[in-house]
Amino acid sequence: MNSLRNIWHLGIKELRSLWQDKALMVFVLVAFTVMIYTAGSAGSMELHNAPIAVVDEDQTVLSGRIINSLQQPWFLTPDLVAYGDIDDLLDKGSHTFALVIPESFERDVRQGNPVALQLNIDATRMSQAFIGTNYIQRFAMAEVAEFLQPGSSASTGLPIELVTRVSYNPNLDGTWFGGVMELITQVTLISIILTGAALIREREHGTVEHLMVMPLRPFEIMASKVWANGLVVLLAAALSVTLVIQGWLQVPVAGSVLLFLLGALIHLFSTTAIGILIGTVARTMPQFGLLLILTILPLQLLSGGITPRESMPQLVQDLMLAAPTTHFVSMAQAILYRGAGLEVVWPQMLALMAIGGVFFTAALLLFRRHLSV
Amino acid sequence: MTETVARLEGVSHRYGETDALSDISLTFPSGCMVGLIGPDGVGKSTLLGLLAGARELQTGELQVLGGDMRSQRFRNRSAPRIAYMPQGLGGNLYHTLTVDENIAFFADLFGLRGPSRKDQIDRLLEATGLLSFRDRPAGKLSGGMKQKLGLCCALIHSPDLLILDEPTTGVDPLSRKRFWDLIDTIRRQRSGMSVLVATAYMEEAERYDWLVAMDEGKVLATGSPAELREQTNTETLDDAFIALLPENRQVQESGDTANAAQREPTGENQTPAIEAEHLTLRFGSFTAVRNVSFSIPKGEIFGFLGSNGCGKTTTMKMLTGLLTPTEGEVRLFGEPLDAKDLATRQKVGYMSQAFSLYGELTVRQNLDLHARLFHLPDTRIPERISVLVREFGLEDVLDQRAGALPLGVRQRLSLAVAVVHEPELLILDEPTSGVDPGARNRFWQLLMRLSREDGVTIFISTHFMNEGERCDRISLMHAGEVLACDTPDRLVEASGTDSLEGAFMKTLEAVDKEPETGADQLALEPASHGDRPIVFSPRRLLAYATREARELLRDPIRMAFAFIGSALLMLILGYGITLDVEDLSFAVLDRDQTPQSRDYIAAVSGSRYFLQQPELQNIQELEQRMRSGELSLAIEIPPGFGKDLKRGRPTEMAVWVDGAMPFRGETILGYVEGMHISYLTELAQRTLGVVPTLTLVTLEDRYRYNQDFRSLDAMVPAVIPILLIFIPAILMALGIVREKELGSITNLYVTPVTRVEFLLGKQLPYIAFSMISYVSLVLLAVYVFDVEIKGSLLTLTFGALLFVTATTALGQVMSTFASTQIAALAATAILTILPTVQFSGLTEPVSSLSGAGALIGPVWPATWFLQISRGVFTKGLSLADMQGAFLALAAFVPVLTVMAVALLRKQGR
C-alpha cells in the first residue's frame, strides 16, 4: 500500500519535472505531430515520381503512346535524350531508368515480330528499380495490345487471367504506412529518451542519492519513472493517432484505436525499461547519447517497419524476436491496417509482456546494484 | 586611489521577472583590493559577471579599464587585461585535464609563447605549491588546490584587473589562509593590479582595502572596513552590515547570536544515537577513510571539521548507508545499520553537500512530496508544512521554483525537507557552505532548537570555525583519519592557542606541511598586451582543439562506443536492412483440386520468393490468416480451372496480396505477374511444343552498377553516411552544451578566443575522430561485406571529410539552441533520424519525394554524401563526374558554420 503511494507520488513528481522542461516538451510535441506528418506525407506511393529518360529512335505513334503512358504519379514526365547521354544520366543519378525504343519498333509490332525494349536501370535504387520495371513492362504491354486491337487489354488475351486484389491498402498508398511506422519509431525513441534522461538527470543533480536515504525501494523509484514517462508518451501517441494520422493525414484506420493504444501501453513497459537500463549503464549524457543511437537504430530499422522482416538473415530475424519493436510493428500493422482484433494479436501482446518483464527485471537488478555502490 | 578601474552608471540587470541589479552607479578605485559583501542572491555575482564581460550589459553604462564594455571591439581588446574566476570550485577548469594541461590551455588562449611562457607557468606553479601536482587531473585536486589552480590560470597573462567570485567558498580554513597569503604576495609584486572579490566571509572582508555592501540589487554603502564600522558605530563588519540594512530587514537579520544553553548531560547508560567502529573505506588502492571510530549520544550536536577531501562526506555517506564500509561497523540507535531497512531511514534526515532537491518543483511541492514519501498521514501534511514554512522562514517563496532561489534560502529548504518527518537523527554535510552570515545564523538557531528542544541528534560537517564552536563536540579530520575529537573548549586548550581556528590550523599544519612555495620570488612578467587584438589566431583554435581531443581521449567509454558502436551498427544494418523481398509465405485455396491446379501451385512454391504454408479450407480462413499477417499472399483457384484449361477455354484465378506494407505489396505484385507469364509460356511450350507470343513487347533489363541486384551492394554504401551523421552530430552537440552545463563556457566569454576559433577548435577533434570511424567502416565494407570500391578511395575519403565536417557543424547548430544536454540529445536525435532515414535517398531517390520530404531532401547533407558514396562504391565515378554533389556538400560547411557562429553567444545573459 505504502509502496503504491510512493510510486504514485514519485510519478507525479516526474510529471511536474517534465512539464517544467519546456524545450523538451516542445520536442515531444514536434516528434508526435510534425515528424509524423512529414514522414507520412513524404512517400505517398511506392513508385512515385520515378525519374525516367527515354531514347525514342522510332519516333512513331506507338512509341509516342508508350512514352505518354509513363506518367505521374508513378513517373516524372519522361525526358527525351540521345542514346549517348544514358551513361551520364545514370551516373549522375538524375534518372533511375533509361528506356530505349529502337528504330522500326512500330513496324515490327505491326508485322507481329516480337521486339525487346532496352531498359537501363540504376540498380542501386533497389526498390524503385524493381517495382518500376514491372510498371514499365505492364504499361508497354497494355499500349501495344491497345494499339493492335483497340478496346482490348493486355491480360485478356492470356489463357489464364490473373485477377489481383490488394488487401488492406488497395492503392498501396505509402502515406498509410509511413505515418504509422514513424509513430512507432517516435513512441520507442521518446520513451527511451525521457526515462533514461530522467534517471541521468537525477543522478547528475544528486537527487538519486537523496531518494536512497528515504524509505523508498529501487523498485518504487523505477516504477514511478516507468508509469509517468510512459503515460506522457501514451497520451502523445493517442493524440497523434487520432489527430495527425486519422485527421491530418486522412489514413483510414481499419481496427480499433483503443486496442492499438493498449498494445502501445504494453510496448512502453519494455521501452521505458530499456531507457532505465541505458540510463543506468551510461555515466554521462554523451554516453547515454551513444548508447541510445546504438539501441534505437537496430530497433527501428530491423523491426520490420522499414523493410520486410522475412527477407532478413535468419539470425537477425531470430535476434530481433527479442526486440519489443518487432512485435509492436507486427501488431500495429495487424490492428491498424488489417483490422485485426484481440483474437488475432494476442500472441504479440503476450510476447511484448514477456519481453517487458525481462527488460524490467534486468533494469531493476542493474539499477539496484548501481544504487548500492 | 584616485584612479578608477571601473565605473558603473545606472546599471540594471534582470533575469526574466527578477531584478538582479537595480540602477547601480558606482566607481571602483584602481590598484587596490575591493570586496563585494552581502547576503546570497543580492547581485554580487551578476555585477562581477558584467565587469568581466561574461554577461551582457542590459541597461546603463559600464566602463572598465577606461573603455566601454558594450563594445565588442573594446572587450576583445581588453580581454587579455582582465582575469575572471567564476563561482564554484574550479568552475572554469577542465576536470579530466591535468594541472599542466589546464594552464597550458589558458596560456595558449592568451597567446603566451617562447621561454617567458615556461617561466611564467613554472613561477605560478611554484608560488601556488602545485609544482609537485603537475600531472594530476584537476578533478582530483582538493577544493583549495582547485582554487589555486584557477588562480594560476587567471594570472597566467598578468592581468591588470583580477575578478574573483567567492573564491574561498567551500574551502577549508587552512587552504583559505594560504590562498589569501598568495593573493597578498602577488599584489605586493604587482602593485598596479586591481582585485575585485565577492565574499560571504566577513572576516576575510576585513583585510580588503575598500568594500561595497550590497543588498537586494542595490548598493548600501561603500568605504574601507574601518569607515563602514565607524559609520555604523559597530565593532565588527558583521554587525556593521546588519546595521546598514533597511530597518525592516534588520529585525530579521539580527537575533540571538549567543550560544544556546549547554546541553543537559544525559544518562550515561543510554544507547548512543550513532556508534562507528573502525570504519574504513577503500576505493581500489585509495583509502578514503581509515579506521574512524566515534560514539555520539542522543541529542548531541557533533561537528566534523577538516580540510577539503579529507573523507568527511565519505564517512557521512557510510552513516546513511549510501556507502558500505570496507571494514568496521555502524550502529544507529544500538542497531547495526542495514541499508535496506526502510524503518531506519524513517528515523534519519540527511542533507547532502550539493543541493539535492528538485529545482524544477516549487518549495511547496518539494515539501509536500517529501512529506508524502515519508508517509505522514494525509491529514497532518498541511499542518506540518505550514509549521515548517513558518519555522524556516519560507512563507514568501512558497510557490517559487526551488532552483531559482538564492543559495541560503535553498539550504533552509533542504533542512526543512530533511526534518519533515521529525527524524531523531540529522546528518548534515556542509549545510552552510556558501550561505551568508545572516542566513547561517538563523540556520544554527534552528539546529539549536531541534537539538535542545526536540532532542534531535545532529551530525554536521562545516568549514566555519564559529559554527564548530557551537557544537557540543567536534572531531578534526585529515586525510581519512580523525586527528582529535573533543569539546571545542578542550581542543583549544589542548592546542595551546586561543581560538578554535588556531587549534584547527595547528593540528592540521602538524600533519600537512605546506608545499614549499616560492611565492616571494614571484615576479610576474608584465605581459606585452598588443594594442590590436588578433582577429583570428590559429594558436587559440589549436588550444581548443587539443583540449577537446584530450578530453575525448580520456573518456574511454565514449571512444569505445564510437568505434565499436559504429562498426557494430554497420554489421547489424548491413546484414539486416535488405531490399530483397524473399521467403514470402503464401497459401492456396484450391477449389479445383485437379492436376492442373496442383501444377500451378507447384510452380509458385518452386520459386525462391515464396514459401508454401498449409492449404486454406475456405474464404474465412483466408481472411483470418491474412489479417494476422501470417500470409503475404493467397491464391484462389476456382472450381473448373483444370477443365477449362484443358479445353482451352479462358479461365481465371484470383490472388490476394497483403498491401499493409506498400513496398512489399508492390514487389509481390511484380513477382506474381512475372511468374504468371512465365508459367503460361512454359505451359504452352509443354503442351503445344512451341513458344507462344504472349506479347510482342518485352523489356531487356540492364541492371547497372549492381548486376546481381544484391542488396548488400546497394545498402552498405548507404549505411556509411547514416552512421557518419548520427554519432558525430550528437557528440558534437553534447560537446558544446556540456560546457554550458558545467560552466567552462565562461572561458569563451572572458578570454580573447573568438566564436569561430572556439567552434572550429572544438570541431577538429570530432572530425578526426569521425574520419577514423569512417576508415573502420570502409574496411568493414570491403573486407567483411565484400563490397567492391569501383571508384577512387581518395574521392570517397574527400567526400567523407566534407561530410563529417558538415555533420559536426550540424551538431554545433543544434547545440546553440539547447541549454541542457538532454534537450540537445533529444533535438539532435529527433531532427536527424527522420530526414536521414527517409529523405536522403536511402530507399527512395530524392527526386521521387513529395511534400516536406522533397523540400528537406536536397538541403540535407546525407543526401549528397549518399550519392557520392554510391557513386564511388557501385558506379566507379570520379570527382569530376560528381562535381554537383561535391559542391552541394561543400556548401553545407560554410552555411552551417556561419549559422552556428551567428547563433552562439559570446556573452552570457
What does the model show?
The complex is a heterodimer of chains A (373) and B (909). Chain A is α/β, with parallel strands linked by helices. Chain A has 2 domains: 2-43 and 173-372, no CATH class; 52-148, abc type-2 transporter like fold (3-Layer(aba) Sandwich). Chain A has helices at residues 2-20, 22-32, 34-42, 61-69, 86-92, 105-110, 126-148, 174-204, 207-212, 218-248, 257-281, 285-301, 314-320, 324-337, 342-372, and strands spanning 52-56, 79-80, 97-101, 115-122, 160-167. In chain A, strand 1, helix 4 (61-69) and strand 2 (79-80) form a beta-alpha-beta unit. In chain A, helix 8 (174-204) packs antiparallel against helix 10 (218-248) and helix 11 (257-281) runs antiparallel to helix 14. The mean pLDDT of chain A is 85. Chain B has 909 residues and is α/β, with parallel strands linked by helices. Chain B folds into 4 domains: 4-253, P-loop containing nucleotide triphosphate hydrolases (Rossmann fold, 3-Layer(aba) Sandwich), CATH 3.40.50; 274-511, P-loop containing nucleotide triphosphate hydrolases (Rossmann fold, 3-Layer(aba) Sandwich); 538-574 and 709-903, no CATH class; 584-688, abc type-2 transporter like fold. Chain B is 48% helix and 17% strand. Chain B has 33 helices and 25 strands. In chain B, helix 22 links the parallel strand 21 and strand 22. In chain B, helix 28 packs across helix 29. Chain B is elongated, with a radius of gyration of 37 Å. The interface between A and B is large, with 148 and 153 residues.
